[in-house]
Each structure stands twice: as C-alpha cells, then as structure tokens.
Fold these 2 entries.
Entry 1:
Amino acid sequence: MRDIKAVPIAAEATVADRKTRQGRTSRIDPFGVFGVLLLVIVWQLLTAVLAPSSLPTPWSALLRIKQDFFRAEQLSFYGLPDTGLFNSMIYTATNVLVAVALGSLVGVLAGLVTARFQTIRAILDPIMMTLGTIPILVLAPFFLIWFGVQRMTAVLLVMIYVAVILYIFAQRAADNLDPIYEESALTLGASPHRIVWDVLIPGTVPQILGGIRIALAGAWGLEAIAELLGAQYGIGKIVQVLAGATDVQGIFSALIVLGLVAVVSDALAAFAISRLAGWSVAARAGGA
Amino acid sequence: MLTRSFRRADGQIVDALSAVSFDVLKGQFVCLIGPSGCGKTTLLQIIAGLLLPSSGTLMVGNEVVAGPSPERGMVFQKDSVFPWMRVIDNVQYGLVCRGMATGERRAIAEHYLERVGLAHVAQAWPRELSGGMLKRVAVATVFANGASVLLLDEPFGALDYVTKRHLHDVLLTLWAETVGDKPRTIVFVTHDVDEALILADRIMVFHTGRLIDDILVDAPRPRTTDALLTPQMVEDKHLLLAHLGLEAKRVGAASLAR
C-alpha cells in the first residue's frame, strides 16, 4: 500500500545526476582556457603592430611581474620604497575584503529589514538609491578631505558601493521569497526569531551570495580607482605612479596581477556559493 | 457567525465568507467543497490563524483562534517544504521549534517518513523529489508535529490520479491512528467530488462565501470502488455535482442512477 511505484521520478537517479553535474563545475572548463589563450594570442599579434612603448609583449609583462614581485626598484624613485607587486596586492586585497565584508553586512541587514518593515523602507530607500547613483569620482574628493590619504578612505568608498548593491539584492530576495514558507513555519510553531534564522535568511542566501559575488567583482576595480585618486599604497597607487612615468610595461604587470587576483577571488566566491547554497538551483547555475 | 471581507485593489469590499457558522466534532474528517472562489481557502486560513475573521469568532477546543499555532497543522496547496533543508530536517522542523531533544525528534521524523514511504530519501534535498513526494513530506511534517487539527488545502490537486489515490490511503491510515487519546480532526479542502466522498465523514458545501449544504457521509471504511456505488453514495454524488452546477438539481437522483 505504501509502495512508491506510482512515483514518476526516482530520487536515486536525480541524486546521482546532481553529483555528476557538481563534479563538472569543479573541473577547469576547456572553453575558459581557450578564451584566455585567445586573449594572449590577440595581445601578441597586436604587439607586432604597436610600439613597445604603448603595448609590451605578454612575455615582457610576465618578466616584469617576476622582477617587481617582491621589490620594485623603480618605485622607490617615486616615494614608494621597499614595496613590490606582492605587498601592494596584499594591501589592495585587504581593503577589498574588509570593504566587501562590512559593506555586505550593512547592506544585507538593511535590505532584509526594509523588506519586512515598510516604514523603514520608505526612509532608507531614497538614501540608498541616492548613494548608489553618486559616481565615485564625485564622492572621493569629499572622503579625501574628511579622512585624508589613508586606508579608511578607499575602504569606505568601496564599502558604500558594496552596501548599496547588497541592499538591493537582499531586499529583492526577501520580497521574492514566497510567503508560504513563513506561513508554514508559523503553523509549525516557529517564533519570529526562528523565522528570521530558519526561513528568511536561508531563503534569501542564494541571491545574497550572488550579489556579494557581483559586488566583489566590481570592488577590485573601485578599490584601484580609489587608490588612483588618493592613496599611499596599493596596486592602484602603483598604476598611478607608473602612469606618471608612462611606464606601460609596469602598468600592464600591475594590472595583470590585479586581474588574476580578482579572477581567483571570483572562483573562490563561486565555490563558496555552491557549497553554502547547494540546495538552490539558481546558486548552482551561478557557480558553474 | 464568521465573516471575512477583503478590500480589492479597486477599493471594493468583497466578502470571501459571509455569516458562516458551524461546529466540527473532534476526530471528524471534514471536506470543504465548492467552486473556486467560494471561500474554502479563506475559511481554512482563518482556522489556521493565518487570517483573522472580519467579524465573528472561531473557536478550536475552548480557545478563540487569534493566530497560528502548532496545534493546527496545515498542508498548503502550493509546495511549502523548505528547499534549504533536507527532507528529514523539514519533517522534524516543528519539533525543533518546540525544543525537543535531537534523538527523540529524529525518531519521530523517521517514523512518519517511513509511514509515508519516504524513509529512503530522508537525506535528500527537496528539489530532488517529485511533486507527489513533496506532498508526502508535507503530510509527514504535520503529523510528526502532533497537531490535533490538520488543515489540508487542496493538497493533492496537482497530482496524477495514481499518486493521489496512494496519498489518500496514506492520509486515512495516519488519521485512523489515534496517538494517546487524542483523535485528529481533519479539515480538507477540495474541489473533487470523488475525493470528498472517499475521504470524508462530512462534506460541507460552500458557494460564494456561504455554507449551502452539510452532508454526512456514513458509508463504512475502507471505501472501496464498490462502496462508492451504493445508492446513498450515488445520490450524494449527484447532490454534490448539482451544488457545483454540473447537474440540474433533481429529486430521486439515486433511483434514476440505478
């Protein structure tokens, strides 16, 4: 009587299916490798046409990375002694990670709260939307005046951007969460506190993590810009200094390091998403 | 006397339920039937405490319903199984909320998963299950939670015929088992006349927010295919079909059918 022969889908089959699909996401995509190769080939071909002073060859850029990795002699002429690409990258990466962590926290909390409390939403929505539309070039001078040429300025600039993105993502995720889950939890005896932890947060986590990934990708560029506009250290600062000396090869080496770190961090974020929100179809598609 | 009004987007006040009044006996299996938009789901949500009546009161036991309670479990029309929890964690969620010890609640959850025939997918994610399996998880969840009143809102409406019949058996078996001396009352919303006749002790018919008929079905259980063909059952079926506007109301329907 309780046989399940009438059920159209066998659970075991779908479990196995999911395992192979997840296995595929963790391997390196051959098309991705092809894309990178294509980029390098086009770059190499362009160097045949353009002068080395405007475009260095890929190989010379790599050699420059090796040479400047721990200590870059040229930089000491511009008042950046005892630093190399590695140290600067650590400085930039720390700023990005701190800004993304704090910005996400603020944005997610504000987004979830406003999704459930209309009055707070009415107050916060215009503030967040205004902040989100101010270009960083406009905001940066104020921050430089208020906080000076230091770490905090860059972190705050990136943080604001991350917080606005996560505010929108978290709010949308909570708006779109089917009310049936909260109703079901209520009829099972869940307290409001439990509903937040067991329904609202897990139910919105896939979209929030997707938002963090997008914010992280953008944060690298913003942090570099913030450093260009005023900083004492960092990859952006190196680019600014070398641009002043029209050292194209040096700029390329710095940008390649920044790009590689950004790509690796994005891959790590995708991996974390697939682990944390494995139940969600959307999260797995995003992580593939 | 219950009334529930809604303000529509265009500003008009609509009575989803108007002046409804009834009693349900403890342990009774009641089906609410009626065309869509007749107020069945609204009534169920009021019993669940998810909606409050605009006027009138609803009592369960000796208490006025003022909000949701784990004493009144609900199986929703749509899938309500949490996709972010494994099947077993869904089934024991209500018990977690009550602060029951891990071992005890696990045992209860496993028992009910076994009863609905899903012991083998306890560790699976809901998205790996079919629609019928998800309904069984929902049924196991409300039974595991030990509610004395179970509210089911067209739970099997979207399922294929075979799966639906299986789930009727599962539901009736679980309902017939009395835990302690606590019989379970079931209020089951449906628009399917045969489903109501197979399941119910009593069928309440709704139309445009009003209770228009209240039929006792005292056919013996288990109700086999033959049991549905007795003159009384056939007459009840004609009556229900007439209420749903599918047949003209007629006298002596049973004799004609024979």
Entry 2:
Amino acid sequence: MSAHHLARVAAIVLVVGLLGPIAGMMAASLLPETRVFGGFPWTGPLTLTTEHYAALIEERGFLLPIRNSLIVATATTLVAVPCATLCAYALARLPMRGKGVLLALLLAVSMFPQISIVAPLFLVLRNIGLLDTFPGLVLPYVTFTTPLAVWLLTGFFRQLPRDLEDAARMDGASRLRVIRDVVLPVAAPGLASTAILTFLYCWNEFLFALSFTLGPEHQTVPVAIALFRGRYQIPWGQVLAAASIATLPVVAIVLAFQRRIVAGLTAGAVKG
Amino acid sequence: MTTTSTSPHDSRLALLLVTPALVVIAGIALVPIAATVWEALHQHDLRLPWLGRPFIGAGNFIEALGDARFREAVAHTVAFSAISVPLELSLGLALAVLMHTVRRGRGLVRVAALLPWAIPTVVAALVWRLMFENVATAMRVDWFSDPLTAWIPIVVADVWKTTPFVAVLLLAGLQTIDPEVYDSARLDGASPMRQFLTITIPLLAPSLVVAAAFRTLDALRIFDVPYVMTAGGPGTATEPLSMYAFAALMERLRFGYGSALSITLFALTFVVALASVRALSRATPVEPS
C-alpha cells in the first residue's frame, strides 16, 4: 500500500472518529430510549421519533435557554467586536508606545483561568443588582471575548495592503474617514470571522453562565444541559435532543464559514 | 513601523481608539484579579455574615496547605495537563500532517477537524459520558466508579475536543514551510522520516511551542468536562483545582478561601505562561519585526 493510500485510509478513520460521536448523538436523539439503551443486539423495526424534542420544548421549556443564549451571545458580539476593531486598528497601523506589552496583556487576559475572577464579579454584580440578568452575563463575557477579538483583528489589519489607505490619506481624508470608508469595507471578511468566533465562544461558555445565573430565567443552553441530571435518573433522550439543538447552529456556522474560521484561528495564533 | 504619514495627531488618535478596549479589560479583568487577591487575604463567608470580613493575612493559604482536598486538586490539575497535552500535541501533529498531505476531500477533513473544537464542551462531555456508559454495560467495566479509570473518559473527551485545534494551528505552520526545502532534501536522498525530523520539526518548533502553551494554559483551567462527566467523583477523585475553587465559592459560599484557591490556580497559570514566553523566544529564530 502506497503512502498516498495510507494517508487516505487514515483520513477516513479520522473523519469517522471526529464526526462519529456528533452524528451518533444526533441520530440517537431521534430514537426511542429503549433503542439506544436496550443493549446489543438491537431487535425490532427501526422507528424514528421526535418525542424527545417535543418533551424538551413542551415540558422543559427549552426554548427559554435558547432565547437566552442568543441574546447574550449576540449582545456580547455587538459590544466586543466594535470595541476590539478600534483597538486593533490602532495596534496594527498607528504609532504607539508599549504595543508589545499591550498585545501580551491581551493574550494573558484571554488565557487566564476564568474562575480567578468569579468571586469579585459575583460580589459586584450582586451589589449593583445585575446578578441573574442579561447585562450581568454580557459584562463578564466581554472580558474574555474582547482580548481575543483584538488579537484576531490585529492580525487581519496587518495583512491588509497599505496602498489604499495611503492613497486616501494623500487625497486628504482624515484617519477616521479612512478607517470608515477604506479599511472597514476591505476588512469585512476579517470582521466577519471575528464576529463568528466571538459568537461561538459565547454560545459555548459555561463557567460564568453557571456562576452568574440563579435560575432558569436567564440560564444559557450549556447550563440548562449540564443541570439536566434529574434527581433520580438522567432523561438521556431529552439530553441528547438538547445537545443536538445546542450543536446544530455550530454545525451550520462551521459548514458555512470553515475557511474563515481557520483563517481567524491562525491569523491570531501564528502570525500575531 | 514604516508608517508613511506619522503625526502627533495619530498618536493621540491611537490612544483614543485603544481606550474602550482597555477600559473593558481593566474594569472586568485586571481590577477583579486584584480584588480576588484582596479577597483571598480575608475571611469572608457569605453564610456567616455576622462574622464580617476580617483581614487574616495568609490565613486562607495556610489553611489550603493543610487541606488534603486542595493538595489533591492541584495534583489532579497538573497530572491531567501533563497527560492530555502531550497526547493532544502528538495527535494534533499527525492530524496536521495528514490535512497537509490529503489532496481529495480536504474540505471534509477540515470540517471534521473543526466540529469537535466548535461544539460546546458541555455537549462533548455528555456525549462521551453516554458512550462510556454504554461501553460499560457492554464490557461490564464501570469507568466512573474507580478513582483512576474515571479519568480516562475525561482525558478522551478533552483530547477528542482539542486535538483539532492543535492541528489547525500546526497546519498553518506547515503551510509556511517552503516546499523547495523538501525537494532539495529528497534530491539528497533523505528518507521521509529523516525529512520529518530534520526539516518539519525544527521549522515547526515555534508553532509547536505556541500550541503547547495554549493547550497547557487551557488544560490547567479545565472545568466543564469533569463538571459534566463525573461531577468530580467518585468522591473528589477527578476534581481539578478550578472545580474545587468553584465548590468553595459557589456551593459553600466561602469567598475568602475560594478566592485563595482560585488565585493559586492563577499563579500556576502565570508561571506556565512566563515559561512559554521564554520557550517561544528560544524556539523562534531571530527575525526582523
């Protein structure tokens, strides 16, 4: 067997290993629980059912955490990305002292353990009445998404050709005008990748959402799923349905923007 | 910097543009870190409000040193990182080389690599828990009731979820290597293995260090996977430091002690981050910036 064939076999094994669990989860969410947990060999006809989804939405009110997650992730993206765009442009193009220190600080903030700021944030949010509210989640989320977004966007801005900007400057346009009319349109793909990644991080975030919500009213999807463990036994059918719902938008985003996502991940980490 | 038109005006503008992001980061990250340090020096129990919040200096840290559950949590965190990160790096490197080599179906491999990374960690943990529970019934092995084997599903889920991220980082590094280097090596009769060891690995070293640093810092703060998979059990056998700190804070409401625990994790992360910066400056050949 040639190296080329070997690579192809390895690729197939990997694709199955990486996608199998996700595909299996989605398939199992459409089967009766007795089918999934009845043990081998499976007997009887294969019947698909949407009973878990119906129970999840009607009995558990799972639309609420979905709504909450959408609100929090969208709001965070709308705050963090514009904030980060301004900062990243300055870092990429304008003269400034301490750039290296600032970039290192940003990276440090996005990599430190979130648990280390849970205590003071909890106390502050409680004192100003924002515990268990949407702003009370968006504020902490902005901390870990802004540094990341700045890091990604600085990489993107640095890759943009300077010629257009310089030409506009020669024509007498002010810096802010150049940013608005020349840089932002050209940087649109970079801004899109950054917004997508920011949204994904918020959609998936668990620790802050667990710490700063008190009940189902503002719980996000990951928290709702994690706290599913019923008192006596886990309703696996519903858990799988909920996990599939949490995964579907992610699958859609990855399928639609795979190249952009890879560009975003690598612009920050390798070339930054 | 080779800006064509630099003016004092630009410097002022730069400061203005950086300010919103800086305010956000200072206000919701740096100040809270300082506040956690301050909190860690106090006795502060939300369940015993009549005690107030007396300053006790290093009292919480001294208590932690005598706390077996804390020492075990530190050991769990370090051991988990030491086992999972090398696994993720080596598998990630293999996956990256594969993604680099495969010609047909590149898009499919890329999607397959991105999906585990992109889905919520909570979901990944649940799916792997379900699979291990099903395997348990088939094989009559109960992974989750033994303090040692309970780690296996956690490591597997983490490796499955994060290896693709490593691969994407390393793939970007691989793509920057000039193919001509390999061509001349092949002409000199170097075997594929030799090419890998003498060309790929050295040229990939900076990317490897970056990936190792990212993964180690991330592994040290692991929370979601054990929280969902084992709840730290059996007992506290799979409880990492971030989960113990969370329990001290949000379950026992001991904010002083919990802060001391979480600052310890912060310090651990900080040391690793400094070490990685030094490693990176050694791995990166001097290049004009």
